[in-house]
Amino acid sequence: MAELPDLTRFDGVLFDLDGVLTPTAEVHMHAWESMFTELFSAWGIEPAYAEGDYFEHLDGKKRYDGVASLLRSRDVEVPWGNPSDDPSADTVCGIGNRKNVVFERVLRADGIAAYPGSLALVEKLQAAGVPIAVVSSSKNAREVLTAAGIIDRFPVIMDGVVAEAEHLDSKPAPDVFARAAEMLGVDPRHSAAVEDAHSGVRSAAAAGYGLVVGVDRGAGEAALREAGAHVVVDDLAVFV
């Protein structure tokens, strides 16, 4: 592997959450698979849900945008509905809320812990005085950070709740990474973004980050580089 950049030399480092800081991506994957497998079976939708659907349509996106994208891939259109829709509602928002019920149940039952390598990097950056932030599409980001015991480490949390309130477009649009840099008070051109999703890498690249680090938790090195990652690693411990 070529020599890695020193992340302490950047104005700021902004991290995705699920799959980068914590292994919640696995919980999300399980929740999506469980919910969509049941839904597709009940509605007679083909082809059946597959693991590739997660990386292609759901990973890194806001919950409802992911639902709409996956349904559209099967030529299925349902009303958008409202975020307050009951999980039983056959709307984009209702289906998204249905998945979230499964996610919250698993998170409460099993708990969550930060990846050791990611936590070590966060501690190194904090010791060096480098501003850090979380940039997540999830509305559960604060709950996950709290469960992992690391919420106090991040003064800026750009999550799905903020994105919805400010009407920001979902990753892969640059909106959330651009806004997070503003909130942190750093210039993206002199900052680093860390992502594990194709959509998140594209978002950070489009926002003009000086360095985009791809963390390969299953998305594939080639795909992450194609999306715009300058460096791809398996674990953030390599930066410590």
Question: Could you walk me through the main structural features you see in this protein, from its secondary elements to its overall organization?
Answer:
- With 240 residues, this protein is of the alpha/beta class.
- The chain has helices at 24-43, 51-58, 63-73, 92-110, 116-127, 141-147, 160-165, 175-184, 198-206, 221-227; strands at residues 13-15, 132-135, 156-158, 192-195, 211-215, 231-233.
- It folds into two domains: 7-23 and 113-239, HAD superfamily/HAD-like (Rossmann fold, 3-Layer(aba) Sandwich); 26-110, DNA polymerase, domain 1, CATH 1.10.150.
- It is 45% helix and 9% strand.
- It has a six-stranded parallel β-sheet with strand order 3-2-1-4-5-6.
- α1 (24-43) crosses α4 (92-110), α2 (51-58) crosses α3 and α3 (63-73) crosses α4.
How is the topology of this model organized?
Elements: E1 13-15, H1 24-43, H2 51-58, H3 63-73, H4 92-110, H5 116-127, E2 132-135, H6 141-147, E3 156-158, H7 160-165, H8 175-184, E4 192-195, H9 198-206, E5 211-215, H10 221-227, E6 231-233
Parallel strand pairs: 1-2, 1-4, 2-3, 4-5, 5-6
Helix pairs in contact: 1-4, 2-3, 3-4
- Treating each run of at least 4 consecutive H or I residues as one helix, how many helices? 10
Oligomeric grouping of the chains: single chain
Helix content: 40-55%
Please provide the ordered H/E string of secondary-structure elements: EHHHHHEHEHHEHEHE
List low-pLDDT spans. Answer: none
Strand order in space, largest sheet: 3-2-1-4-5-6
Q: What's the overall average pLDDT, rounded?
A: 94
Supply the helix-strand structural class.
Answer: alpha/beta
